[in-house]
Amino acid sequence: MVCTGAAGGIGRAVTAAFAASGARVLAVDLDEAAARASIADLPGDGHAAIGLDLGDLASHEVLVRTAREQLGSLDVLAHLAAVLQRRSVITEVTEADWDLQADVNLKATFFLCRAVAEEMKAAGRGGRIVTFASQGWWTGGFGGSIVYAATKGGIVTMTR
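The structure assignment produced for this chain is given below.
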């Protein structure tokens, strides 16, 4: 099982739950040291970690290949990786803020899920892809998170 955003609080909980159920985990995070730390105390054997910038679409091939090499197959993707650039008022949101969040939170989600689905299809066993959104897509988010909320709404729309 692959978990992106594995170094965050929810990502750590997801990796721990899968490991507790007997799965081998590939923890993926922008910060490789933090990804390694997230698997340090997991039960079971065969866990691995990798640092990747998922906003770089070329990294998706690396993720798929690493999962195949380290885990033997890619059967589950739990995709939690996201970024949040807070801006207290909407007029402070820059194009760079927008692009970063849209690229990582929405664009990378689409292309990563597509790459993983193709791998699962080619393996002939199927699998599961779970994308994480946020209540922010529905409520407009919390202080300074308008772009983040918009990208999370895109994920909800994409997975329906």
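Interim note for the steering committee: The longest helix spans residues 95-123. The chain has a mean pLDDT of 93.
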